[in-house]
Write a structure and sequence with these properties.
Two copies of one chain form a homodimer. Chain A folds into three domains: 180 residues, Molybdenum Cofactor Biosythetic Enzyme, Chain A (3-Layer(aba) Sandwich); 76 residues, Alpha-Beta Plaits; 153 residues, Alpha-Beta Complex (Maf protein). The first copy, chain A, is 42% helix and 25% strand. In chain A, a hairpin with an 8-residue loop joins strand 6 and strand 7. In chain A, helix 12 runs parallel beside helix 17. The termini of chain A are far apart. At the A-B interface, helix 3, strand 2, helix 4, helix 13 and strand 14 of A face helix 3, strand 2, helix 4, helix 13 and strand 14 of B.
Chain lengths: 425, 425
């Protein structure tokens, strides 16, 4: 019987990252952050992160120290084929087990190397050693398997170090294992919002957040955007799903206008998907964002079916020559103006014939602002369905790259609202 | 006297990151990686990273544990004005000191809040408390000061948590403090290279790397690029500088063709600086990179003086309409071909009149490759000084975004070599 079942308290965990490259600062420890997020979602408290090099004495000591307060230790790294990979040996020492050769892993490794046309060396066989009493987790994305080992209410889960292998194993194998241990199922959805700050979002939902027992709500901020995680911990998946959906309905009534995805998609993915599905050809003309919009949209595979072309009209002359913005407009209202933005989008439509044309002009900074038009002022203009409109926005000036990114998000938000038939304030 | 001076061994350090948000996985711990890099550069071995929440008992225990093996502990976080910020109290407990009000910090905080037009609250005064025997480090970028405290050969250095404040304080205050402690000065330069893999770089320099005592050489790889750090640890800055320069001369004789910066600048910064200094107007036409080149160049403030415009000619029609690429060429050789690339750059010059015109067409993937023209094949064409040339390259296909980024680097490398009068293979 596990100790947390005896106590009825939340399970407590320590995350141990093994690898000298972490102590050299050659790589940033993203594994610890990922595992912390996931364990918190599962209702498990994380008390410590430890990082240690390939040193058996220190690793063993840290595992012992972690088990003083915690029931669960998750290690990453040190499962590889080389001499200095010692995590398995140490965990066996601490939890009183010994290593045996795991036949299914040997088979898997043999077919893995055969597929690559390589001979399996002896030190690769070392990867098929696992503690005799452990639950083995097959590594779908690499060679070293992971495992869970229990002794007297203490559980160690050992995972490979490469983030891609580790996250895949956690999602597919470790999460169900932990759900079974803790006798409950976690379901969550991540909503993504634009046009509302994290503190406003919190204010709008404060009663739900304060009263939360289940589902729980958590807000996150990320470069001008917000996320809201709605999570439920129940004894069955159906119950958890129903609870999450019902809370999301309430959230939608409050801040639905700002939600652009209920499935943790990025805004450009949402917009690209709609354009591709509805076969709407589009083009862009950018000044202050300097190609960031086009670059972001063309990250999406398959976008070439609808993206016709983009202009980065950085000079005034290029705005006139490429888009037919009149020299008079530029002289009278300036390159950063509602009038210029509108002529950019309309010119873009004239030149390309695309049914959707988006344009932006603004001041990205750090120089170039005036009292009248400060750094962060942008004009976003869109021609769609025979109508053209222009949004004037003043972005909170953080840095050149922040301002450019936010201007890009405003362009995407404009298209998204137009495609949904929503009003643009 | 400090214990490492007695032993003559390298100083040993533990990094302790304090913050519940780290244990929730809300932020990734970049501070530990930064400090590890810096300490290693200073010749200090890092044995452990610990992360702990705002819990005085656990924090105190970890600091004690760190001091069992280490002479130096660096903490980040927990210096703020709120109740749960307890790092200072704990460090005083461990190193037998007590907190006093630091008059210069009070003055600094008062002027800081006056400048913001805000009244300083009482809990902000808490930030001016420091251990009575400590060396105080002023926080130029925020409010909470840092400090170093010593007792019986053990040193604790406490730094604020926000990375911007922490790195600035480390660079300006902590580094000189540690150099004095360790009785030596470290000087290093970071060379940046393109067009050579990390393993080839290592091979070309293997004798220098193997025999290294001082200066030391370390290679790093980053998305298609390499860096080489040359560092020297001497008793005076002059000596260290001379040693580094002399080694760099040797390195240049071996791999000089691939070095684009000796000051850790990025390739696009190097290229942008040259174009701005020499007042060379330029324009770009991009297919597979989708605006990434234009977006990267326009990250540099002041580029508008020379960047005329960019085209993202994603469709065949746009290549013809905007750049005058002949329909026959497109039909006969395809959009991804040497012929199309050359007509893109030449057309770009015709349309814009810019003395430097760069164009790219290629297959970013994941779809669209053939046996003849696989994913990763790119053609980079440049018109400059009346001459046009084209490079055919096949990028090792990693992912769409990797391929696009590498194609962008090839564009930058092409311009850089042309501007330097170097041959393009």
């Amino acid at each position: 019987m596990y100790s947390w079942e005896r106590k009825g308290d939340p399970m407590r965990a320590t995350i141990v990252s093994v690898g000298t490259e972490l102590l050299f600062g050659q790589i940033v420890n993203t594994n610890a952050a990922y595992l912390s997020q996931q364990l918190n979602l599962l209702g498990i408290d994380v008390l410590y992160h430890y990082t240690v090099g390939d040193n058996p004495g220190r690793l063993g000591e840290l595992i012992l120290h972690g088990f003083e307060e915690c029931d669960l230790i998750i290690t990453t790294g040190g499962l590889g084929p080389t001499q200095d990979d010692l995590t398995k040996e140490i965990v066996c020492d601490v939890l009183q087990d010994h290593l045996i050769l795991h036949a299914p892993t040997i088979e898997y490794l043999e077919s893995y190397f055969a597929r690559l046309g390589r001979v399996m060396t002896d030190n690769n066989r070392k990867q098929a050693l696992v503690p005799s009493r452990s639950t083995v987790f097959k590594n779908e994305g690499g060679t070293a398997p992971g495992f869970a080992l229990e002794n007297e209410g203490k559980v160690a889960i050992c995972l490979p170090g490469p983030p891609r292998e580790m996250t895949r194993m956690f999602e597919g194998k470790v999460k169900p294992f932990l759900e079974k241990l803790t006798n409950h199922v976690i379901h969550y959805r991540m909503l993504r919002l634009f046009g509302i700050g994290e503190s406003q979002l919190e204010t709008d939902l404060i009663d739900l957040i304060d009263q939360q027992t289940d589902p729980t709500l958590a807000t996150y901020a990320k470069e001008g955007e917000c996320s809201l995680r709605v999570a439920s911990k129940r004894s069955s998946l159906e119950e958890a799903k129903a609870a999450v959906e019902s809370t999301i309905e309430t959230v939608k009534q409050r801040v639905g206008d700002h939600i652009y995805s209920s499935d943790n998609e990025e805004l450009h993915e949402v917009v690209a998907k709609k354009l591709i599905q509805r076969e709407i050809r589009f083009a862009s003309a950018e000044s202050c964002t300097g190609g960031l919009f086009a670059q972001t949209m063309t990250e999406v595979p398959g976008i070439s079916a609808v993206f016709d072309r983009g202009f980065v009209t950085y000079s005034n002359r290029s705005k006139t020559e490429e888009l037919g913005v009149s020299e008079e407009t530029l002289a009278r209202f300036g390159a950063v103006s509602r009038e210029t933005a509108l002529e950019m989008a309309e010119g873009l439509h004239r030149v390309t014939g695309c049914p959707l044309c988006i344009a932006v002009t603004g001041i990205a900074g750090p120089e170039g602002g005036t009292e009248d038009k400060p750094v962060g002022r942008v004009y976003i203009s869109c021609y769609y369905d025979g109508i053209s409109l222009c949004r004037e926005e003043t972005i909170r000036n953080v840095s050149r790259s922040w301002n450019r990114n936010f201007a890009k998000l405003l362009m995407l938000d404009t298209i998204n609202k137009l495609l949904d038939g929503k009003e643009i304030e």
